[in-house]
Amino acid sequence: TEPSPVLDLKAEYVGVTSVNLTWAVNDNASNSYTYRIEVVNGTSVRNLTSNVTKAKITELIPGTLYNFTVFAVVNDDETEGISIRLYTKPSPVLDLRAEYVGVTSVSLTWAVNDNASNSYTYRIEVVNGTSVRNLTSNVTKTEITELIPGTMYNFTVFAVAADGQTEGEGVSVRLYTKPSPVLDLRAEYVGVTSVSLTWAVNDNASNSYTYRIEVVNGTSVRNLTTSNVTKTEITKLIPGTMYNFTVFAVAADGQTEGEGVSVRLYTSKSQFL
Prior knowledge:
Layout: E1 6-14, E2 19-25, E3 34-41, E4 44-50, E5 54-57, E6 65-74, E7 77-78, E8 82-87, E9 94-101, E10 106-111, E11 121-128, E12 131-137, E13 141-144, E14 152-160, E15 171-176, E16 183-190, E17 195-200, E18 210-217, E19 220-226, E20 231-234, E21 242-250, E22 261-266
Antiparallel strand pairs: 1-2, 2-5, 3-4, 3-6, 6-7, 6-8, 9-10, 10-13, 11-12, 11-14, 14-15, 16-17, 17-20, 18-19, 18-21, 21-22
Protein backbone atom coordinates (compact mmCIF):
# COMPACT_ATOMS: atom_id res chain seq x y z
CA THR A 1 0.00 0.00 0.00
CA GLU A 2 1.35 3.38 -0.94
CA PRO A 3 1.77 6.10 1.68
CA SER A 4 -1.23 8.36 1.89
CA PRO A 5 -1.12 11.57 -0.11
CA VAL A 6 -4.03 12.80 2.02
CA LEU A 7 -3.07 15.57 4.46
CA ASP A 8 -4.71 17.80 7.00
CA LEU A 9 -7.93 15.82 7.46
CA LYS A 10 -10.26 17.86 9.64
CA ALA A 11 -13.91 18.37 10.46
CA GLU A 12 -15.03 21.70 9.05
CA TYR A 13 -18.45 21.26 10.66
CA VAL A 14 -19.76 18.92 13.34
CA GLY A 15 -23.52 18.70 13.74
CA VAL A 16 -26.02 16.47 15.50
CA THR A 17 -26.47 14.00 12.63
CA SER A 18 -23.89 15.19 10.08
CA VAL A 19 -20.20 16.01 9.75
CA ASN A 20 -18.37 17.90 6.98
CA LEU A 21 -14.81 16.66 6.38
CA THR A 22 -12.11 18.38 4.34
CA TRP A 23 -8.59 17.32 3.43
CA ALA A 24 -5.69 18.23 1.16
CA VAL A 25 -3.55 16.17 -1.22
CA ASN A 26 0.20 16.59 -1.82
CA ASP A 27 0.35 14.98 -5.24
CA ASN A 28 0.45 16.51 -8.72
CA ALA A 29 -1.71 13.68 -10.05
CA SER A 30 -4.42 14.31 -7.48
CA ASN A 31 -6.95 15.52 -10.04
CA SER A 32 -7.33 11.88 -11.11
CA TYR A 33 -8.00 10.63 -7.57
CA THR A 34 -11.22 9.57 -6.01
CA TYR A 35 -11.64 9.07 -2.28
CA ARG A 36 -13.20 6.41 -0.11
CA ILE A 37 -14.46 7.55 3.28
CA GLU A 38 -14.91 4.80 5.84
CA VAL A 39 -17.37 5.71 8.62
CA VAL A 40 -17.07 3.49 11.70
CA ASN A 41 -19.22 3.55 14.84
CA GLY A 42 -18.63 0.53 17.07
CA THR A 43 -19.23 -2.48 14.83
CA SER A 44 -21.09 -0.46 12.18
CA VAL A 45 -19.02 0.30 9.05
CA ARG A 46 -20.23 2.41 6.13
CA ASN A 47 -18.32 3.46 3.00
CA LEU A 48 -18.83 6.62 0.96
CA THR A 49 -16.99 7.97 -2.06
CA SER A 50 -16.04 11.47 -3.14
CA ASN A 51 -14.43 12.97 -6.24
CA VAL A 52 -13.33 16.09 -4.38
CA THR A 53 -11.30 16.73 -1.23
CA LYS A 54 -14.34 17.11 0.98
CA ALA A 55 -17.38 15.10 2.01
CA LYS A 56 -20.62 15.67 3.90
CA ILE A 57 -21.51 12.61 5.94
CA THR A 58 -25.15 12.42 7.02
CA GLU A 59 -27.48 10.05 8.89
CA LEU A 60 -25.19 9.91 11.91
CA ILE A 61 -26.31 9.19 15.48
CA PRO A 62 -26.31 12.19 17.87
CA GLY A 63 -23.68 12.35 20.63
CA THR A 64 -21.80 9.34 19.28
CA LEU A 65 -18.11 8.61 18.63
CA TYR A 66 -17.18 8.03 15.00
CA ASN A 67 -13.91 7.16 13.30
CA PHE A 68 -13.64 8.63 9.80
CA THR A 69 -10.84 7.31 7.53
CA VAL A 70 -10.10 8.78 4.10
CA PHE A 71 -8.30 6.70 1.46
CA ALA A 72 -7.11 8.04 -1.89
CA VAL A 73 -7.98 5.72 -4.79
CA VAL A 74 -5.52 5.74 -7.71
CA ASN A 75 -6.09 3.42 -10.70
CA ASP A 76 -8.18 1.09 -8.52
CA ASP A 77 -5.42 0.98 -5.89
CA GLU A 78 -5.89 2.51 -2.46
CA THR A 79 -3.26 4.36 -0.51
CA GLU A 80 -2.98 4.16 3.25
CA GLY A 81 -5.84 5.82 5.08
CA ILE A 82 -5.70 8.85 7.35
CA SER A 83 -8.18 8.99 10.23
CA ILE A 84 -9.96 11.40 12.54
CA ARG A 85 -12.09 10.49 15.57
CA LEU A 86 -14.82 12.75 16.86
CA TYR A 87 -18.21 12.87 18.51
CA THR A 88 -21.32 14.17 16.83
CA LYS A 89 -23.15 16.82 18.84
CA PRO A 90 -25.86 15.73 21.25
CA SER A 91 -29.40 16.84 20.42
CA PRO A 92 -30.76 19.83 22.36
CA VAL A 93 -32.40 18.85 25.64
CA LEU A 94 -36.21 18.73 25.76
CA ASP A 95 -38.88 20.04 28.14
CA LEU A 96 -36.58 22.25 30.24
CA ARG A 97 -38.56 23.66 33.14
CA ALA A 98 -38.28 24.89 36.69
CA GLU A 99 -39.66 22.28 39.08
CA TYR A 100 -39.14 24.62 42.05
CA VAL A 101 -38.43 28.34 42.32
CA GLY A 102 -37.27 29.63 45.69
CA VAL A 103 -35.74 32.78 47.10
CA THR A 104 -32.10 31.77 46.57
CA SER A 105 -32.43 28.47 44.70
CA VAL A 106 -34.07 26.95 41.62
CA SER A 107 -34.53 23.28 40.67
CA LEU A 108 -34.48 22.54 36.93
CA THR A 109 -35.46 19.34 35.11
CA TRP A 110 -35.20 18.33 31.46
CA ALA A 111 -35.37 15.27 29.19
CA VAL A 112 -33.21 13.76 26.43
CA ASN A 113 -34.17 11.34 23.67
CA ASP A 114 -30.75 10.43 22.24
CA ASN A 115 -29.68 6.76 22.31
CA ALA A 116 -26.27 7.85 23.60
CA SER A 117 -27.71 9.94 26.44
CA ASN A 118 -26.61 7.55 29.20
CA SER A 119 -23.05 8.77 28.49
CA TYR A 120 -23.96 12.47 28.57
CA THR A 121 -23.19 15.09 31.16
CA TYR A 122 -24.81 18.52 31.22
CA ARG A 123 -23.48 22.04 31.49
CA ILE A 124 -25.81 24.58 33.09
CA GLU A 125 -25.01 28.23 32.37
CA VAL A 126 -26.44 30.62 34.96
CA VAL A 127 -26.59 34.24 33.77
CA ASN A 128 -27.67 37.31 35.73
CA GLY A 129 -26.79 40.56 33.98
CA THR A 130 -23.04 40.36 33.32
CA SER A 131 -22.49 37.56 35.85
CA VAL A 132 -22.02 34.11 34.29
CA ARG A 133 -21.59 30.88 36.27
CA ASN A 134 -21.27 27.33 34.94
CA LEU A 135 -22.37 24.17 36.74
CA THR A 136 -22.33 20.53 35.67
CA SER A 137 -24.72 17.65 36.26
CA ASN A 138 -24.59 13.93 35.48
CA VAL A 139 -28.38 13.59 35.59
CA THR A 140 -31.29 15.38 33.89
CA LYS A 141 -31.95 17.70 36.81
CA THR A 142 -30.05 20.14 38.98
CA GLU A 143 -30.51 22.41 41.97
CA ILE A 144 -28.91 25.82 41.55
CA THR A 145 -28.18 27.62 44.82
CA GLU A 146 -26.64 30.91 45.97
CA LEU A 147 -28.98 32.97 43.80
CA ILE A 148 -30.05 36.55 44.52
CA PRO A 149 -33.67 37.02 45.68
CA GLY A 150 -36.18 38.62 43.31
CA THR A 151 -33.76 38.62 40.40
CA MET A 152 -34.09 37.53 36.77
CA TYR A 153 -31.86 34.66 35.67
CA ASN A 154 -31.33 32.96 32.34
CA PHE A 155 -30.57 29.25 32.72
CA THR A 156 -29.20 27.42 29.65
CA VAL A 157 -28.67 23.65 29.58
CA PHE A 158 -26.24 22.01 27.14
CA ALA A 159 -25.94 18.23 26.69
CA VAL A 160 -22.25 17.21 26.55
CA ALA A 161 -21.03 14.04 24.81
CA ALA A 162 -18.77 11.47 26.50
CA ASP A 163 -15.59 13.33 25.49
CA GLY A 164 -16.59 16.11 27.90
CA GLN A 165 -16.19 18.70 25.14
CA THR A 166 -18.69 18.23 22.32
CA GLU A 167 -21.80 20.16 23.29
CA GLY A 168 -25.27 20.26 21.83
CA GLU A 169 -27.14 23.48 21.25
CA GLY A 170 -28.28 25.12 24.49
CA VAL A 171 -31.91 25.35 25.58
CA SER A 172 -32.87 28.22 27.89
CA VAL A 173 -35.46 29.22 30.46
CA ARG A 174 -35.74 32.71 31.97
CA LEU A 175 -37.30 33.29 35.34
CA TYR A 176 -37.21 35.36 38.50
CA THR A 177 -36.24 34.01 41.89
CA LYS A 178 -38.80 34.75 44.60
CA PRO A 179 -38.42 37.93 46.63
CA SER A 180 -37.65 37.48 50.32
CA PRO A 181 -40.58 37.87 52.73
CA VAL A 182 -41.11 41.47 53.83
CA LEU A 183 -39.83 42.49 57.26
CA ASP A 184 -41.26 44.38 60.21
CA LEU A 185 -44.87 44.51 58.97
CA ARG A 186 -46.94 46.66 61.30
CA ALA A 187 -49.93 48.96 61.47
CA GLU A 188 -48.82 52.58 61.68
CA TYR A 189 -52.42 53.75 62.08
CA VAL A 190 -55.67 51.94 62.87
CA GLY A 191 -58.88 53.85 62.25
CA VAL A 192 -62.57 53.07 62.09
CA THR A 193 -62.67 52.28 58.36
CA SER A 194 -59.01 52.47 57.39
CA VAL A 195 -55.61 51.07 58.35
CA SER A 196 -52.11 52.24 57.36
CA LEU A 197 -49.49 49.49 57.07
CA THR A 198 -45.71 49.79 56.73
CA TRP A 199 -42.99 47.21 56.15
CA ALA A 200 -39.36 46.91 55.13
CA VAL A 201 -37.36 44.90 52.57
CA ASN A 202 -33.66 44.06 52.48
CA ASP A 203 -33.30 42.55 49.00
CA ASN A 204 -30.88 44.21 46.58
CA ALA A 205 -33.53 43.96 43.85
CA SER A 206 -36.24 45.59 45.98
CA ASN A 207 -36.31 48.84 43.99
CA SER A 208 -38.01 46.82 41.22
CA TYR A 209 -40.59 45.22 43.53
CA THR A 210 -44.28 45.90 43.81
CA TYR A 211 -46.43 44.60 46.65
CA ARG A 212 -49.71 42.74 46.84
CA ILE A 213 -51.79 43.25 49.98
CA GLU A 214 -54.43 40.65 50.69
CA VAL A 215 -57.23 41.92 52.92
CA VAL A 216 -59.29 39.13 54.51
CA ASN A 217 -62.39 39.48 56.68
CA GLY A 218 -64.17 36.16 57.21
CA THR A 219 -64.89 34.85 53.72
CA SER A 220 -64.33 38.23 52.06
CA VAL A 221 -60.98 38.57 50.28
CA ARG A 222 -59.75 41.75 48.60
CA ASN A 223 -56.41 42.29 46.87
CA LEU A 224 -54.64 45.61 46.55
CA THR A 225 -51.36 46.43 44.86
CA THR A 226 -48.88 49.18 45.56
CA SER A 227 -46.08 50.63 43.53
CA ASN A 228 -42.59 50.09 44.91
CA VAL A 229 -43.28 51.90 48.18
CA THR A 230 -43.26 49.93 51.42
CA LYS A 231 -46.48 51.31 52.86
CA THR A 232 -50.16 51.45 52.02
CA GLU A 233 -53.43 52.84 53.30
CA ILE A 234 -56.35 50.42 53.17
CA THR A 235 -59.78 52.04 53.20
CA LYS A 236 -63.45 50.99 53.06
CA LEU A 237 -63.08 48.70 56.06
CA ILE A 238 -65.90 47.77 58.46
CA PRO A 239 -65.71 49.37 61.93
CA GLY A 240 -64.83 47.11 64.87
CA THR A 241 -63.99 44.15 62.65
CA MET A 242 -61.05 41.77 62.63
CA TYR A 243 -58.95 41.74 59.47
CA ASN A 244 -55.99 39.71 58.34
CA PHE A 245 -53.59 41.72 56.18
CA THR A 246 -50.93 39.78 54.24
CA VAL A 247 -48.18 41.51 52.27
CA PHE A 248 -46.37 39.76 49.40
CA ALA A 249 -43.34 41.22 47.63
CA VAL A 250 -43.66 40.78 43.85
CA ALA A 251 -40.66 40.64 41.48
CA ALA A 252 -40.36 42.82 38.38
CA ASP A 253 -42.22 40.31 36.19
CA GLY A 254 -45.39 41.13 38.16
CA GLN A 255 -45.97 37.43 38.85
CA THR A 256 -43.23 35.91 41.00
CA GLU A 257 -44.25 36.45 44.62
CA GLY A 258 -42.38 35.99 47.85
CA GLU A 259 -43.91 34.31 50.85
CA GLY A 260 -46.60 36.42 52.51
CA VAL A 261 -46.22 38.04 55.93
CA SER A 262 -49.39 38.74 57.93
CA VAL A 263 -50.72 40.96 60.67
CA ARG A 264 -54.16 40.53 62.30
CA LEU A 265 -55.99 43.42 63.92
CA TYR A 266 -59.37 44.99 64.61
CA THR A 267 -60.49 48.25 63.13
CA SER A 268 -61.65 50.80 65.71
CA LYS A 269 -65.29 50.84 66.74
CA SER A 270 -67.40 53.71 65.51
CA GLN A 271 -67.91 56.41 68.13
CA PHE A 272 -71.50 56.83 66.99
CA LEU A 273 -72.76 53.30 67.60
